Amino acid sequence: MPGEGSDSSNMVTAVNPATLGKTSLPTLSDKYDLPHHLEVVEACLVEAGYAKVDEATSNITILGKYRHLVVSRILTSLAPVKDVAASAKRAATLFGYDWPQIRRLLERQYCKKTSLKAEYQSKLKKLALKNDGECEAFIEGATEAFSLSRRAFGTDVAERRAFIRQLCRGIPHDTLLQLLRMIQTSMAAAGFSDTDNDWENAVAFDDFDLASRSDQDQPLVSTLTFCSALRSVCSLSEEAQRLTSAPTVAFKQSSDAVRLTQPTSERKPRPKFSDRYAHVMFITGSLLEDKEKAQRYFETLKPQDSLLLRGRRGRPYALLGFSSPEEFSAALNDVQKDTDSGLTARRFDPEGSKNGKGPRRQ
After folding, report:
1. 228 within 8 A of 197, measured Cβ to Cβ
2. Which residues of the chain form beta strands (DSSP E)?
3. Basic and acidic residues compositional bias: what residue ranges (predicted)?
4. What value, to the nearest 5°, has the Cα angle with vertex 132 and ends 126 and 137?
């Protein structure tokens, strides 16, 4: 034990209760992360000398003289997730701060495979890749769901296959077709046939999945992952769209020079945002750099429509349309009062004279 003549040169020891402060342990951010959180917290306690591992059961035993201190700190680490923290506090009171019993109760309530599966399936149902430009946001959401799947089922091949197939339902047909072709081509290059092997398990989900697999669980193809293939397909598709949407040019010979001219065609007038709404608000500020945060903020103002753009110098700005002067005035007042947002708002001038270096007309 620390303080009793033991060699503590290779470990952090619990010299006194003060060493386990309120910020010593990581905090829980999501109730579905509870299994992983408890593992990390218990490992910290063992490394700090407040608990030891029972070799027979692999469970930890908190040293008796630190029991109330340690359990109190564990409860504090759960505080950000109120329902988990409340359950843990009730269990601590009921079981006299006996950590094994508290842990078992929390596991029964929040660590069931069925609960984790229901949560990741719920996340997958909400995922939809609407266009190639949203690829990273789609992958981020899919990664969160995959993490839940891994916690619940580990390396279960059937569950992994089911996860990938459900994820593919949120990918447009043409994009998915290119993705499958890329995976099948990689399988063929590695000497495997897609008729004899599941393509869903032929590649890892992402680089983290690939790096964490054991030697016995390595995928058939390690040169790409599901996510890297999707990124590649979306990137190529975006590039193709840029090339095909570029204006065509024609060479016109004159007496003294050769110059490029665009073929004449009848252009449809560009719809004006300011023509569709009687009251338009012009907003600038750094918060607009994050599209998701900006959209959530706009929702609190309740506009009829919103438009997030960038000016000639690349700075973001937004236009919010309102149908009534009362709604416009209330929203404008809310933004101007919210100094913490860092946003600047004013009525949009269709002629551009009051918009500074922003838009001339939208």
Report:
1. no
2. 51-53, 60-62, 250-253, 258-261, 279-284, 305-310, 316-322, 344-347
3. 336-354
4. 45
Write down the residue that tokens 């109730």 correspond to.
31
Angle at 86 between CA 85 and CA 92, to 5 degrees: 85
Q: Which amino acid is at 48?
A: A
Which tokens is 332 given?
């404008």
Torsion of the alpha carbons at 250, 251, 252 and 254, rounded to the nearest 10? 160
CA distances from 276 to 214, 249, 281, 358 (A): 59, 34, 13, 19
CA distance 87 to 107: 11
What CATH architecture does domain 277-347 belong to? 2-Layer Sandwich (3.30)
- Per-residue model confidence as pLDDT tens digits over 227-281: 999 999 999 988 888 888 756 555 455 445 444 444 554 555 545 677 788 889 9
